[in-house]
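Side project, low priority. Logging it here so it doesn't get lost.
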Amino acid sequence: MIINLENSSILDSFVDVFFALDSWGRFTYMNVPAEELFLTSKEELIGKCIWEKFPELAKTNFEQQFNCVKSRKVNVKFEMFYEPGQMWFEATISPDKEKFIVSLRDISECKQKCRLASLQAKILEITVAQGSLATTLQKYTEVIVNQLELSYAVIWTYNSQKKKFELTAFSKAGNPHGNEVQQEYSKQQQNINNGNK
């Protein structure tokens, strides 16, 4: 794949992020969307090493794929999550003479839709399964935490006879029934109920 980086006005008009790196990972070109993604102007980045300027990309799948393209001189396409921007990208890295062309297409919206569709399917599956309300609500929190990659999820219900909120279900990532979660939410329950008096 040969890309003429001299005609940068065409690449600047693209919505996708394009940048070029030399074999040491130094920027040799970037379009306007790349500047926007990295929140830095091309003047500040050209000649600088991507691994030093953006250490969050080092030791990731992006660096592994870049090294693969360097050694094998083949195109690679893969998905990557860019933590600082909280964005998912379909990434392509291609060798081009002495440089490597990187293009990133934002697929965050598609990823979000897929995650929500999966969440809806799992919620529906739990809803139609036989089980008590407490068990069903507990399963909801577990699925929400896992599918949306949240730290925790909580369901409160209002007890109209006691005129207070009650902690009904909770789940925490990596520890769905952790005691510290229950203790924390018991404190919050007291605060909420005190506010209702």
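Brief comment: DSSP finds eight helices and seven strands in the chain.
Revisit when time allows.
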